[in-house]
Amino acid sequence: MYGTVARMKLKPGEEEARIPGDRGTLVYRSDRDPNEYFLAIRFESKEAYRANAASPEMHQCYLRYRELLEADPEWHDGEIVYSSV
Q1: Cα–Cα distance between 21 and 48 in angstroms, integer?
Q2: What is the model's pTM?
Q3: What band does 12 get if pLDDT is binned at 50, 70 and 90?
């Protein structure tokens, strides 16, 4: 399996405008800063992840999503070495 984790900070007041994730997505809100979120997404393979990331549809979705954030997400891609799900 392969996936990505993103650290991001929403603009104040944009919480309800989040783009919902799919079943393979977890979104955490930081206890330290309620405008800071962590997103974790799981894919069946690195190839599937890269194909999704490179698709024109995902790029358009990202552009809409990016408008909600104070800055670009901080992405951390890598192989998932353990999952209980």
Answers
A1: 16
A2: 0.71
A3: confident
